[in-house]
Specification:
The chain has twelve helices and ten strands. It is of the alpha/beta class and 263 residues long. The chain has two domains: 11-205, 2-enoyl-CoA Hydratase, Chain A, domain 1 (Alpha-Beta Complex); 209-254, no CATH class. The strands form two sheets. The chain has a six-stranded mixed beta sheet with strand order 1-2-3-5-7-10, sandwiched between helices. Strands 4-6-8-9 form a four-stranded mixed beta sheet. Helix 1 packs parallel to helix 3, helix 6 (148-158) crosses helix 7 and helix 10 (209-223) runs antiparallel to helix 11.
């Protein structure tokens, strides 16, 4: 497929058992997100959330940037404004749906990350960046106050000083600094990006699905200050009586790889 051929809403690939890949698909426009793209992402997330065979999701983009953020033409006045203003929480709900997926997620950052795309990637559980990428959150330079769940995500995942730096200063931050700040979990040369993503995906696919799903949800709730001890105990109890735990203990005793079934 050429660079401009077949551009449109994000693509969903579920051809690999246990794994899904979502690809932002507007490389000519640096994968900026339109209203129809957000609706397509929500539909993909809803489908994946209902798939009991799913184990890991990778989110990436085509072209030289991961994503240039929301299409700001849909925020302003004029004929295009209705798409952005008729549903002002559309972007927020889309990113929240990504964070709420019950399986681990990896952002494969094939290039720069700007605007709302910084939060889209942050909603994933892991972020692998490519050498030379940059990040910028320009909300303060546009006159935008960012939506609440995005602010919570920034502070809970990066800490208050990093969140203030990225939001209030609106600096362009290079890849090595993103690694130091904890925005990136790994940084790879372009030729090694896929191998690093595969390494993380393989580690996640090797884990017990019930334990991974339960701990992902519980850790996110704790980070947001939403600790519900009864809910966490229920997840703990479900794992304690699961086939996965019995298989994990048997595999450990036999010094073999476990074969989990998610039950």
């Amino acid at each position: 497929m050429s660079l401009h051929e077949g551009e449109g809403p994000p693509l969903l690939d579920t051809g690999v058992p246990g794994r899904a890949t979502i690809t932002l698909n507007r490389p000519r426009h640096l994968n900026r997100l339109h209203r129809e793209d957000l609706l397509a992402l929500q539909a993909h997330f809803a489908r994946l959330a209902a798939d009991p065979t799913l184990r890991v999701v990778v989110l990436t983009g085509r072209g030289r940037l991961f994503c240039a953020g929301f299409n700001i033409d849909e925020l302003g006045e004029g004929p295009a404004a209705g798409a952005g203003t008729a549903d002002p929480q559309l972007f927020e709900r889309t990113v929240d749906a990504l964070e709420a997926l019950p399986v681990p997620t990896i952002a494969r950052l094939n290039g720069g990350v700007f605007g709302g795309a910084t939060d889209l990637a942050l909603a994933c559980d892991f972020r692998v960046g490519v050498a030379g990428m940059e990040l910028r959150m320009p909300a303060a330079r546009l006159g935008l106050h960012y939506y609440p769940s995005g602010l919570v995500r920034y502070v809970s995942r990066l800490g208050l000083p990093a969140a203030k730096r990225l939001f209030l200063l609106a600096e362009t931050v290079p890849a090595d600094e993103l690694l130091r700040l904890g925005y990136l979990d790994a940084l790879a040369a372009p030729e090694a990006l896929d191998a690093e993503v595969e390494r993380l995906a393989a580690s996640l696919l090797a884990g017990a699905p019930l334990a991974l799903q339960g701990m992902k949800l519980s850790l996110d709730e704790v980070a947001r200050g939403e600790l519900d001890l009864d809910r966490i105990r229920r997840r703990e109890a479900r794992c304690a009586t699961s086939d996965d735990l019995r298989e994990g203990l048997a595999a450990f005793a036999a010094r073999r790889e476990p074969r989990f079934n998610g039950r």
